[in-house]
Amino acid sequence: MYCNLIQCDHFADTCILAEIDGEPVGWISAYVLPDDEETLFVWQVAVSKKARGRGLGSKMLKELAKREECEGVRRLQTTITIDNDASWALFGRFSKAIGGKLKSQPYFKRDDHFDGRHATEHMVTIEFAEVLKRAA
């Protein structure tokens, strides 16, 4: 929880919260890489059970990528474990919707980085077909 609060504070311009009737139902924590302002790294995506199946994750990603703070962003990155079907589906849909190109490769490896206690995290990179137009 503390990490999420710090992210909200330090990276407020690249985090997004979705609400239904004032209740939080979706959240994305992201930031532009400090040494690469063309890359938006998505740290965490969460959608509550009551809001699933409505395309909320994709909608939040699109809105986030169109923000002024992401004006020069040309790619999105995130890490996903191979068994996280929901995340693969979300980022696959997002890539397709924007005409992007999705690629992945092992990044933090189970045995090398997690002593066999956590699945390998794959670095997913979505190259945008063009810089996304900002929301009006």
TrEMBL record:
Pathway: Amine and polyamine biosynthesis; ectoine biosynthesis; L-ectoine from L-aspartate 4-semialdehyde: step 2/3. Its EC number is 2.3.1.178. InterPro entries: Acyl_CoA_acyltransferase, Ectoine_EctA, GNAT_dom. Transmembrane segments: none annotated. Keywords: Acyltransferase, Transferase. One of its GO terms (biological process) is ectoine biosynthetic process. The keyword Transmembrane helix does not apply. Residues 1-127 form the N-acetyltransferase domain. It comes from the Bacteria. The keyword Amino-acid biosynthesis does not apply. CDD domains: NAT_SF. GO terms for molecular function: diaminobutyrate acetyltransferase activity. Gene3D superfamilies: 3.40.630.30. PROSITE patterns: GNAT. NCBIfam families: ectoine_EctA. Belongs to the acetyltransferase family. EctA subfamily. This is L-2,4-diaminobutyric acid acetyltransferase.
